[in-house]
Amino acid sequence: MSTEKSLVQGLVERIGIEGSLLTQKVEGKEKYVINEDIKNHKDAIKLVLDALVDPNHGVIKSMDEISAVGHRVVHGGEKYSDSILIDENVLQSIKDCIVLAPLHNPPNVIGIEACMELMPNTPMVAVFDTAFHQTMPKHAYICPLPYELYEKYGVRKYGFHGTSHKYVSYKLAEVMNKDIKDLKIITCHLGNGCSLAAVKNGKSVDTSMGFTPLAGVMMGTRSGSIDPSVISFLVEQHGYTIEQVDELLNKKSGVLGISGVSSDFRDVLAASEEGNKRATLALEIFYYKVRTQIAAYAGAMGGVDAIVFTAGIGENSSITRKEILKGLEFFGFTINDEKNSIRGEIQEISNEDSKVKVYVIPTNEELMIARDTAKLVK
User: Fold this and answer.
1) Is 78 annotated as a binding residue?
2) Which of the 8 DSSP states describes residue 211?
C-alpha cells in the first residue's frame, strides 16, 4: 500500500455453473487460468488463496503476508456512512439489508463468511456502495410517498456505485490541483449499470439510482425511472405477475429492450451504424436520459465546475461522450475531438478555454476498497 502498486488481478467466473474458471494475471507473467468445477463461493475463495501462494504463478509466499481483506458490499442501508471493520454485528446488519438488495448482498455475505472461515485471524473490512451517498440531504432522498413507509420500511433513495463516484471525484480534484471542497462535480458512471452523482464540496448531494439500482437513467437491461403505473397496468390489464414485471424491468428493458439487439453498447453501436433503426433509437434515448440528468444536477448544485465520465462505456466510448454532451455547450465548454478519442486513461477532453471542464477518469474501486481497508486496519 506504500506505493499502491497492484501486484495481481484476478477474476472467478461462472460459480456454481458449467464452465467455471479462475483467471489470474501477475505483472510480468503470462495469464494463469484454472478451469475447474467451482461449486460455491467458499470453493472460489479457496481457489483464489491457493493461486496467490502458488510457487509458479503466485505473488506471496504464505497467507501470513495478507494483513487484511476488503469486501465490496452493495447495501449498507442508513446505518453505514463509511467503511467499517466486520464483526458479527456488522455481518448481521449486512444480512438485514438483504431485503433491500436481494441480488447482491447474499453473495457479499457468502464471500465474507468464506474468508472468515478460511482466514479466521485476518481482519475483514466492509466497503459499502451506498455509504458515499449517505451525505444526501433529506429533501434529495425522501420519496414522495406516505412518510410512514420511510419510517417503517426504510423506503428512500439510497444510491449505488458510491465507491466509484467517490474515487473519480477525489481523483479529479487531484488532477485539477484543486481542493475538492471548492468544486461542484457531476460524475457519470456509465457501464452496464449506469448512475450519475452530484458531488458538491466533496459530498454526494444527489444520485440517480434510488431505493434499488433500477431507478435513474436507462441502462443495459434496466429501464431506469418510469411511470410506476406501468406496473399495475401490466399486472391488472395483461396478467403479468409481479415476478415477471420485476424481471422485465431489471433484465429485459433498457438498451436491450429498445434495440432488441443486445445489452452491450458495442453491439448496439455496430447495429446502429448498419442502419438498425431500433438500435439508433435506443442510443438516442440513452444519450437524452444522461444529458438531462447532467443538466438537472447542475441545477441541484447551483452550477457545475466539471463533468467526469467513468466505467466501461464512460471510459471507452468517445462517441457516447460526444453525443451525451451535445446540447450542453451552454454550460461553457467545447469538446476537443482529438483528446476525446482516448480510451481508458485520464484525460481532459474539453478545450483549454472551457469554463466547465470535462474529463475521462478510469474508476478504481479496488484501490478505494484497499485504501479504506488499510486505513481501518491501521
Assistant:
1) no
2) S
The whole-number mean pLDDT for each consecutive block of 10 residues of the chain, a chain of 378 residues, reads 90 84 87 87 86 88 89 90 92 90 84 88 94 96 96 93 95 96 97 94 96 93 95 96 94 95 90 96 97 97 97 93 96 95 92 96 93 92
- pTM for the model: 0.89
In a domain, 377, yes or no: no
Task: Please spell the DSSP secondary structure of 53-113, one letter per residue.
Answer: H-TTT-S-SSGGG---EEEEES--TTT-SS-EE--HHHHHHHHHGGGT-TTTHHHHHHHHH
Q: 129 catalytic, yes or no?
A: yes
Q: Angle 365-377/162-176 helices, nearest 10 degrees?
A: 90
Ramachandran region, residue 137 (left: φ > 0; alpha: ψ -120 to 50; beta: rest): beta
* 352 is known to lie in a ligand binding site: no
Of 297, 267, 276, which Cα lies nearest the Cα of 199?
A: 297
- Examine residue 3 and state whether it is found in any structural domain, yes or no: no
Same domain for 336 and 306: yes
Residue 143, exposed/middle/buried by CB under 10 A (0-12, 13-18, 19+)? middle
In whole angstroms, what is the distance from residue 72 CA to residue 83 CA?
Answer: 10
Give start and end residues of each alpha helix (H) in the chain: 41-53, 88-96, 105-118, 138-141, 147-153, 162-176, 229-238, 242-251, 254-259, 265-273, 277-301, 311-316, 318-325, 337-340, 365-377
Answer left, alpha or beta for residue 376, where phi above 0 means left and psi between -120 and 50 means alpha: alpha
User: 224 among the known binding-site residues?
Assistant: no
Contact in structure between 358 and 333 (CB atoms under 8 Å) = yes
Domain range spanning residue 268?
179-365
Instruction: Tell whether 15 and 146 lie within a shared domain.
Output: no
- Catalytic site residue from 37, 64, 129, 246: 129
Provide the number of structural domains found in the chain.
3
* Same domain (yes/no): 212, 358: yes
Q: Degrees (nearest 5) of the Cα angle 111, 115, 121?
A: 150
Measured between alpha carbons, how far is 217 from 178 in angstroms, rounded to an integer? 29
Give the SS3 label for residue 190: strand
Cell numbers found for residue 356: 466547465
The answer to whether 10 is annotated as binding is no
Q: What does the alpha-carbon distance between residue 77 and residue 126 come to, in Å, rounded to a whole number? A: 13
Instruction: Provide the β-strand partners of residue 6.
Output: none
